[in-house]
Amino acid sequence: MKNKFIYPIFVTGLLFFTASCNEEYLQTEPTEFITQEQLADASANNPDLLKGTVSGIYSLMFQTETGGTTNHNDFGQKGYDIFSDMLSGDMALSSNTYNWYRNLADYQVTIDYTRNENYQVWRYYYRIIRSTNIVVQALGGNDAIPVNQENQYLMGQAKALRAYAYFYLTQFEVNGYDLSQPILPIYTDPAQQAQPKSSASDVYGLIVDDLTDAITLLDGFNRLTKTEINKYVAEGLLAYVYAAMGNNGDAKTLTNDIIASGGFPLTTTAELTGGFNNVNTPSWMWGVDLTPNQGLDLVSWWGQMDIFTYSYAFAGDRKVIDLNLYNSIPANDARKSQFSASSQLPINKFYDPNRIQGGQRVITTDYIYMRVDEIYLLNAETAAKSGDEVTARTSLKALLVNRIPDNSYVDGLSGQALLDEIYLQTRIELWGEGKSYLAMKRNQATINRGANHLFQAGVAVPYNDERLTFEIPQAEIQNNPFLNDQN
Questions:
Q1: Verdict on whether the full-model pTM lies above 0.90
Q2: Lowest mean pLDDT among 13-27, 303-317, 412-426
Q3: Could you tell me the CA-to-CA distances from 173 to 194, 242, 279, 389, 450 in Å, in that order?
Q4: Segments making up each domain of the chain, as ranges
Q5: Would you say domain 9-273+368-483 falls under CATH 1.20.1530.20?
């Protein structure tokens, strides 16, 4: 049964308050709704007040126009999953009618800071940050440990969400990993004015601290819905952060714990072609249960990707698996059948269960943010990179059991050949789920686009090319005097 979320009136105030990332740091408190101080006082003894606020932050992840535009590619995290998959080269725009992704696929967006997509990315993630800062301050501030157990869980979720937003900004806005490089402004208090860029060391330090705190604060938290972040999701996020930093030993430890203690089974063979449309799938660690109440339709991930939804994919804007990647999948691999052999459309991976072309109008198929299969792959990758090839082969083989008839070839892999195979399996397994871009950066890979890309077909682009990262948007530079000479 679908869950229904009802948000208190002050959540509307929170969302109103976070409406502009370019102006929000000039305003210290909303005047139309409950104040920061009132929220802190009220929530000290009544966690339900802040529960609604945190639920409102989760809703930003799937609401439309949270990137500050009316564009039909502006619909929260899954919108940026498409952005990243296209930049990675693993998702090809094979036909184009409506132009929502034309300039991104053609590398025009990422070299022109006036393009709206740059604004969307910046504004969305800083809006999440702004909202989490309100919660953290209401619970006593960055160094506080709330006395109330429920408030501890809320603090853990808020810190994890803040870290999630900063981490994605480090990936989208920066094309390398230099700890001394100024990369992003840091905001940890809703009353802060405009800030200059902080060093990568400070930004990653905040992310690690937030997620470390979140894991501790969320210990024992039994969430009501997979929309909420629990301890294991926070561990998964921190593992991704450590892997991006090259701290592979700690990433391996965290992923080991999720595999051993999280209770999430691997996606089954049947589920691989089951539509990826139900948050109750046991392997899903984090996602959102979409219902008609959320009001999503054409402007959504499904409205861009699924031919069995009334969608741009159905009407002519086709997002398909890169032909080179498709050809690398063996014929006897269960994941080969996720895609059309003639068009490379993901017709058997992502779909509305009714399977009527153009059929689903109101979106009730769910969104996936994280599943345990990616944790096995990240465990294999970080184990191999930290010198533990036995664990790496074990985790990779565990994933492949339900994908291919014989996984024994993995036993003969070592060194770079093992790393290359893990990276390939990551790209195949997680196609369309927004993880290829992160893997490309971690593995310092070069994109080799296949022949089915409408734009830039055949081009080779290295992971640190300027064309693969977004620019600080024009509006932010104009409104933050510290960024005028830092972009």
A1: yes
A2: 13-27
A3: 18, 18, 30, 32, 25
A4: 9-273+368-483, 284-367
A5: no
